[in-house]
């Protein structure tokens, strides 16, 4: 199942679709929890676009104080598909 993040006026919530384990595993490879990703995308005032892919991004602090760069895809006007997240400054070369 894939975790899709729905953003709305009240709060973000996840709905299940196929591929979920792959996204959670990918975030875990970067020591990012799905809840951290969700919170950052929902609350970040620092948004932009990935220089390499053009996908939307959100920047915010993880639970442990790391500055995390979250990359996602907008599936429609309320649905966000997490792509990756990593500590700012530790981007791949």
Describe the structure.
The chain is α+β, with helices and mostly antiparallel strands and 93 residues long. The protein has one domain (2-87). Helices cover 22% and strands 40% of the residues. It has two helices and six strands; from the N terminus they run ββααββββ. The protein has helices at residues 20-29, 34-43, and strands at 2-6, 13-17, 46-49, 56-61, 67-74, 79-87. It has a six-stranded antiparallel beta sheet with strand order 2-1-6-5-4-3. The chain is globular and about 30 Å long. The termini are far apart. Mean pLDDT is 77; it is low at 1-19.
The ordered string of helix (H) and strand (E) elements is: EEHHEEEE
Query: What is the molecular shape?
Result: globular
Strand order of the largest sheet: 2-1-6-5-4-3
Structural class by helix and strand composition: alpha+beta
Total domain units: 1
β-strand percent reads 35-45%
Our count of helices gives: 2
Distance between the termini: 30 Å
Question: Segments where pLDDT lies below 50 for 5+ residues?
Answer: 1-19
> What share of the residues lie within helices?
10-25%
Mean pLDDT reading? 77
Largest sheet: 6 strands, antiparallel
Record field, number of beta strands:
6
How much is the radius of gyration in Å?
12 Å
